[in-house]
Design a protein that fits this description.
heterodimer; A: mainly alpha; 6 strands; B: mainly alpha; two-stranded antiparallel sheet
């Protein structure tokens, strides 16, 4: 009994760990792939050298981030079977095909065109190369479509029945794919990926503008990033709100955990801003709250009743403290992102976008905010649906593989060591690339290798860059 | 038994096809990684890595299709095999992580290049060995009770699985060496030629040993291969192996560029066909048949539509990517 419990906790820790590492790379590369496609399109359309320089600059970073995303993603695709065998047997007929479609429509598309995108500009010419970039960008979005559909089905399962062997089987594919929470989750996640990338690009731009506000590359990337933050952050807050209302409809217990509502409020629930949720006592200690505001936000009426966790059997409670706090971190960062966007708009209007040091420091500080918000949001949604893997239907404890705890523990330790070792090296390499400003005649991913002095840039200035590369 | 060609059977072929394409594509890729220690010069290593850099990611996607396809089309087999192969699977994944990151990392730091070369070679070796061990562990059968794996987490480790592990390492190394013969020039190519000879003999020994050991695992395997009238269908496999071997020896002697690689692949294809003959009709040998493990009909049909439309397209643009980077890697003028 106790052994079984340990293996569950370890398997969950392993999934959470490998997933947390994995999710930051796709979140970044979804946005970056689209950004690269935009940069290349602008280069083809305007012929301005700054765009191809920025393209090659970010392409090098993309190559590293994408590689780390691929290898950590291969791990995920086998993790279902190794650690969650019972879950795989039961849900395979429903979510397996969604993942198979992800592989067929997205992974192959990305991988097939990635080589040409990274190394092939000179071989295929600008137009075909742009097609390859576009395919990679589309591939990242298609991938998000399928994996979020699978995840959403686990949160809000519809369109299925159960067979004699206890497997979920599909009655209606349309209802499975477009399950109730999927459209909201997809929009929320893709916008999050775009914001994450915009904040990283903005931070790198700000870093170089602080040193020299006259450089063209940093100016262009900073301006583009700040437009994104100003436009997308408010849209994201609206989309997040809609997603929350959808959750209230289909997973009310998750919203109770996010709000910290242990008790029911028959005539208007308060909005708890901060506090320490205590799972054993079922109260939020030291709560700072605004009366009736939660009912206003969730039900659009001050006196609307809201049920609390006291209406739910205790064995079905999610871990409230984690859900509660990760939700606040995500929302807080979301408003800071909007603040950055609005601040930049005001300074842009005043003509001081490129030389306002407070703005640049603010943008730099917000560089990692997207990653943290994505992780916090993911933790909110995944802990909030506990203790189920398929919401309301399949318990987490009934989903694991029949494995001895030591097996899971040793693989967990191995993943922790390997991931920290390798991915911290990758992050250092990315930061090193970011520390250099984009140059005149910037080269692509292999431009720095001495044996490959011939750059891939057809634009003017390549000769000068070769000189630099050789120096 | 259901009719020979029905939907589960087609799916078994699709999974087998995906795994085989994976072996074809990532085999030389891993093999080349394992050969890294034998090519200590930076220039050689640059060329070797660049010969696969544009395509490695696509190569590994076939492994994801094999795993993902098994999950989707044969969830029961996936749920039984993955815990049974827990340690080799985790080892393979970690090996792939090491070698995968090395593709970009080794260009990012002069000082730490050697470290990433070790990661590339070690990761490739670990992944290949783990795959071979997993194969042996599947062939020898796993302990199943009800709908779940019921064995321990070291059951996979036997002399037979170690043998198949070593055999696959040798086979991948041969693919890697013949790939280098095809894609490189000069001293690097000479050395790869030389290695191909030795690796070919080693591989023949490995094929022989595994073939002799397999019938001893289970009488069913022996009956499958050696009884009348089965032998009419099984005998062509070893005969074809002998024929391909003769052609391969000849093409190495003639110092041909392209043929050794493709003939080495033919050896793999024949070994793989032999494997299929041994395993049929099981997807988990002697526990779960293709039909018992199959996902419900509508799941398999839903995906089959996608596979029928998409796999030809995938093969087309994959072929295009290989075409773009065709020919010898020239270390002087720069590859990319």
């Amino acid at each position: 009994m106790f052994d079984g419990f340990d293996a569950v906790v370890l398997a969950r820790a392993q999934f959470a760990f490998t997933m947390s590492f994995h999710i930051v790379f796709p979140a970044f590369s979804i946005g970056l792939a689209s950004y690269l496609a935009v940069l290349e399109a602008l280069w083809l359309w305007s012929g301005r050298e700054v765009f191809i320089n920025l393209f090659n600059y970010w392409l090098k970073i993309f190559a590293i981030a994408f590689g780390m995303g691929v290898v950590s993603g291969v791990v995920m695709s086998y993790q279902f079977g190794t650690n969650w065998a019972a879950f795989s047997d039961k849900t395979g007929p429903v979510i397996g095909p969604l993942m198979a479609y992800e592989v067929l429509t997205a992974f192959f598309l990305e991988a097939g065109f990635l080589g040409v995108m990274l190394f092939g500009l000179k071989r295929v010419g600008p137009k075909l190369h742009f097609l390859a970039t576009l395919m990679v960008a589309i591939g990242t979005l298609v991938s998000a479509f399928w994996i979020l559909s699978a995840n959403s089905w686990m949160q809000t399962p519809t369109g299925h029945t159960v067979n004699a062997a206890g497997q979920f089987i599909t009655a209606d594919w349309w209802k499975v794919i477009f399950n109730p929470s999927f459209p909201y989750r997809l929009v929320h996640m893709v916008l999050a990926a775009y914001l994450t990338t915009a904040l990283v690009v903005g931070a790198v731009g700000a870093f170089h503008l602080l040193r020299d506000s006259k450089r063209e590359g940093p100016r262009v990337m900073f301006s583009m990033a700040m437009w994104m933050a100003a436009i997308v952050a408010p849209i994201q807050i609206f989309a997040g709100d809609q997603h929350g209302l959808n959750t209230l409809e289909h997973q009310p217990v998750k919203v109770m955990a996010m709000e910290g509502h242990y008790q029911s409020h028959p005539d208007g629930a308060p909005l708890i801003l901060f506090g320490l949720p205590d799972q054993t006592d079922a109260t939020v200690k030291y709560a700072i709250q605004i009366p009736k505001l939660s009912s206003l936000i969730l039900k659009h009426s001050l006196d609307a009743p809201l049920a609390g966790l006291d209406t739910v059997p205790r064995q079905d409670w999610p871990p409230v403290p984690i859900t509660f706090w990760s939700f606040r971190i995500m929302v807080g960062l979301g408003f800071l992102m909007m603040g950055l966007g609005l601040f930049s708009l005001w300074l842009r209007w005043r003509g001081r976008l490129y030389d306002s040091r407070p703005l640049h420091y603010f943008a730099m500080a917000m560089g990692p905010a997207g990653f943290i918000a994505v992780l916090a949001g993911w933790i909110t949604t995944e802990t909030g649906r506990q203790p189920f893997t398929v919401y309301g239907l399949l318990r987490t404890a009934d989903s694991v593989s029949p494995l001895a705890a030591p097996a899971v523990a040793s693989s967990l330790i191995a993943f922790v060591i390997v991931y920290f070792l390798l991915f911290s090296a990758g992050i250092v390499y990315i930061l090193r690339l970011m520390a250099e400003p984009p140059h005149h005649g910037e080269e692509g991913p292999r431009g720095d290798a001495p044996t490959r002095a011939a750059g891939i840039t057809p634009a003017s200035g390549t000769t000068a860059a070769r000189g630099q590369g050789a120096a | 038994m259901t009719g020979l060609i029905d939907i589960p059977m087609i799916w078994a072929f699709i999974i087998a096809f995906a795994v085989f394409v994976y072996v074809v594509m990532d085999g030389f890729d891993l093999g080349l990684g394992m050969l890294f220690p034998l090519f200590p010069h930076k220039r050689d290593r640059d060329v070797m890595m660049n010969s696969v850099a544009p395509v490695w990611d696509g190569n590994e996607t076939w492994l994801v299709l094999g795993g993902g396809g098994l999950f989707a089309a044969f969830p029961l087999a996936y749920a039984v095999l993955m815990p049974a192969l827990y340690t080799p699977m985790i080892a393979m994944l970690i090996g792939l992580v090491f070698r995968g990151v090395a593709f970009e990392f080794r260009w990012r730091s002069q000082r730490e290049r050697n470290r990433w070369d070790v990661a590339f070679a070690g990761g490739s070796l670990l992944a290949a060995l783990a795959q071979g061990i997993a194969l042996g562990a599947i062939l020898q059968g796993v302990h199943v009770e009800g709908r779940a794996y019921a064995g321990g987490w070291w059951d996979w480790l036997t002399p037979f699985s170690v043998l198949t592990g070593i055999a696959l390492v040798i086979g991948y190394a041969l693919l890697g060496a013949t790939w280098l013969v095809m894609k490189t020039t000069g001293d690097l190519r000479e050395k790869a030629y030389h290695l191909s000879w030795w690796l070919l003999f080693a591989m023949l020994a490995a094929i022989g040993t595994v073939s002799l050991a397999t019938p001893f695992l289970d009488v069913e395997y022996a009956r499958r291969w050696f009884t009348w009238p089965n032998i009419l269908f099984t005998a062509p496999v070893p005969i074809a192996v002998a024929a391909v071997t003769a052609l391969l020896l000849r093409s190495l002697a003639l110092r041909q560029d392209y043929r050794p690689f493709f003939l080495a692949l033919a050896l793999f294809a024949l070994s793989y066909a032999g494997l299929g003959i041994s395993m049929y009709p099981y997807i988990v040998p002697r526990s779960i048949t293709i039909w018992q493990g199959a996902a419900p009909h509508n799941s398999q049909v839903f995906m089959l539509v996608g596979v029928a439309v998409l796999v030809p397209i995938i093969l087309a643009y994959t072929a295009w990517a290989y075409w773009v980077f065709r020919g010898k890697v020239d270390p002087e003028s720069g590859y990319h």
